[in-house]
Amino acid sequence: MSFGFFFTEHERFDGSLLGISIGTVTHAGTVTGMQKIWRTLQALGAIAFAYSYSVILIEIQDTVKSPPAEYTTMKKATLFSITVTTVFYLLCGCFGYAAFGDLSPGNLLTGFGFYNPYWLLDIANLAIVIHLVGAYQVFCQPLFAFVEKWCAQKWPNCNFVTAEYEIPTPFGGAYELNLFRLVWRTIFVAITTLIAMLMPFFNDVVGFLGAMGFWPLTVYFPIEMYISHKKVGRGTSRWLALQIISVACFFVTVAAAVGSIAGVVLDLKTYKPFKTSY
């Protein structure tokens, strides 16, 4: 897809090393110096969003069989997944920008307002659906399990919450249906879908979510675990280096969050519910 965006759009590079120049007129208006700062900070949040897998990393490690040791398996899996993800992120970012230049939208499939060729966009959208359906399940399962366990402990005698009903399946065996699980998961998915449709600020939301999850889950928590596990002495050179990394990443998180919030505020000026602005 990344190579295709580039070679089908232009035979030349359309970007620049400095990005959108101050004073450039875009579909959102004239770019000011302050807007460029906000966009730069927002981009940090978008990059930080690549580390969102840390939210479910411990949940996955908890289900890994041993031997070999869980941390050994997860270390290999993490290295491989980050390498593959980094390659695709760089391809999409670099070649997409080279093809479309400074006006490259956040959504390369619909950001230009064109829908031809239909078959190419349909294939790309199908791939996105397959990817997001699986990712949505993986990210939501820890939340589902937490809520259902809490409710079962809160109302242990409520059949709506705890009762399991066996439904025969044509392939043998039976499927256990829980009414509370069915109702609450359906409501949760409906609400999150409605919010996503109501607020089509893709880049801003991605940047904000990336910022919120980056420092506490990807930096602070692992560093504190490492210090505790390795018994790193307070005030030692290693301890100071780790704290410097943590503080630096904290400021990155704050800057990215501020930039993303500023982006949402700017988008609200031309905001129309349930409509994406091209």
TrEMBL record:
Its main location: membrane. The keyword Cell division does not apply. One of its GO terms (cellular component) is membrane. Keywords: Amino-acid transport, Membrane, Transmembrane, Transmembrane helix, Transport. The chain crosses the membrane at residues 37-58, 79-98, 118-139, 182-202, 208-227, 239-266. Residues 30-265 form the Amino acid transporter transmembrane domain. It is found in: Membrane. Pfam families: Aa_trans. One of its GO terms (biological process) is amino acid transport. InterPro entries: AA_transpt_TM (IPR013057). This is Amino acid transporter transmembrane domain-containing protein. It comes from Gossypium stocksii.
